[in-house]
Amino acid sequence: MDDVTHSLLYPLDWHKTAWSALLEALKKDHLAHGLLIYGHHGVGKMHFAKALGYLLLCDQPQVDSVLGSLPCGQCNNCMLNKAGTHPDFLVVEPEEQGKAIKVDQVRELNHFVSQTSQMSGKKVVIIEPADAMNINSSNALLKTLEEPSGDTHLILVVDSLSSLMATIRSRCQYYEILPPTKEQASVFLRDLYPERNDIDVLVKISEQGPFYAKELVEQGKLEWRSSLSQGLMDVCSGKSTVEIAESWKSIDLLEALHWLDIWIRDMIVMVMTQDKSRVKNADLSDLMTMVESRQVDPRFLHRYREVLSEIEEATIKSHPNKQLVYDRLLIDWKKMLGA
Questions:
Q1: Separation CA 180–CA 329 (nearest Å)
Q2: C-alpha span between 240 and 280 (Å, rounded)
Q3: Lower CB density within 10 Å: C or N end of the chain?
Q4: pLDDT tens readout for residues 116-136
Q5: Are 140 and 272 contained in the same domain?
C-alpha cells in the first residue's frame, strides 16, 4: 500500500486529471457519498485519497492556478489533519498486511459514520485497499454506502475495479488515477533520493509506480528481490532447495509471489518474441539469459504462473508454512529449467 506520513498532502502532478474531475463534481454539488479511487499500484492513490479528505474537511480551501482548490493548511481542521488526530477522519485498513478487512472493522466504521460530527459537520472515511474486504465485510458496508449519515464521504481505494463486488461498485463514483510519465516518476524519485544512481531501474521495475518504488527502497524490498533472483540462479547451479528456502524465510511471501510472477511474465515475453527490449526487469539479465539459454517451453512458464496464483490465493486465506512453499517453488523451478 502507498506509505504516507502525517502531513498535509496535496495532489501530485499526474493526479491533475482526476483531481480536476472531482473538483468539478464538488462545484456542481454532484460529488457522491461513495467515491472509488482506482489505478495502477504505486501511483499514489492513498496520497490522493488523503489529499481529497483533507480538502473536504478544510474550512477555507485555497485556490491554486494549476490544481484548483487545495486544503489551506491553516484552519483548525487542517492542523488536526497534519497531526493525524482529526476526530472526523477515519482510515480503515487490514490489521495485518495482505490480510482481510474484517467485518468487525466495517461495523466500527458504520458506527463512526452514524455519529454526529465533532468538528465542521463533515466526515471522511478511507478504506484501503477496499478489495481486502471479504463478502461479509462488503455486505456490512452496503447499507452505509446506500444511506450515509449526514455529510459523509466514503473513499474506497483499490488497484482494480474488477476486484470489488458489483454491488459496491454500483454505489460509487469512479475516479481513475493515471500513472505518471517516466519523466514525472523520475523527477519524483530523484527529489526523494538524490544520492541514488539507480532511479531509472526503480522507475522501470515499479512500472512507473513511484510510491511502489518508495516501498522497495524504504522497506528493504530491493534486498528481497536480489535474494530471490540469486536463489533462482543458485538452485540451477546445484545449491540445495532447502538451503535457499531457508535463506528466503524473512521475505514476505506475497511480495515474493509478486516478483516471481512478473519475472515469469518477462520470461514468457522474451522466449516468445526474442525481444529483450520488452523485458521490464532487464537489470536481471543473468537470470533472463539463463532461462533463454535453456529454451524453456512457454507452456511450462504459463503453468508456473498458474501455480503462483494458486499459492497467492491460498496465502491470503491462511498462513502457509513459508519455507515449505518456497521449497516447492524452487523444486518446480528447477524441474522446469531441466537443472
A1: 34
A2: 29
A3: C
A4: 899 878 999 999 999 999 999
A5: no
Q: Is 165:135 a contact under the CB 8 Å cutoff?
A: yes
pLDDT at residue 5 tops 70: no
Residues 268 and 140 in one domain: no
Instruction: Record the cell numbers describing residue 279, joined without a space.
Output: 523485458
The enclosing domain of 326 has a CATH number of: 1.20.272.10
User: Would strands 68-70 and 62-64 be described as parallel, antiparallel, or unpaired?
Assistant: antiparallel
Residue 49 is assigned to a structural domain of this protein:
yes
In a domain, 197, yes or no: no
Cα 42-277-177 angle, rounded to 5 deg: 20
- Domain that includes residue 236, residue range: 220-336
Domain count, the chain: 2
Q: Please tell me whether residues 263 and 152 are part of one structural domain.
A: no
Asked whether the whole model's pTM tops 0.85, one would answer yes
Mean pLDDT, rounded, for 211-231: 96
Residue 239 has what DSSP assignment? -
Separate counts of helices (H) and strands (E) for the chain: 15, 7
- Residue 30 exposed, middle or buried by CB count within 10 Å (0-12, 13-18, 19+): exposed
Q: Is the pLDDT of residue 179 over 50?
A: yes
The phi and psi torsions of 173 (rounded to 5 degrees) equal -90, 140
Cβ neighbors of 205 (< 8 A, separation 6 or more) are 213, 216, 225, 280, 281, 283
| Same domain, yes or no: 151 and 254 | no
Q: What is the pLDDT of residues 305-339, one digit of tens each?
A: 999 999 998 987 788 999 999 999 999 999 999 86
Are 57 and 122 a contacting pair, CB within 8 Å?
yes
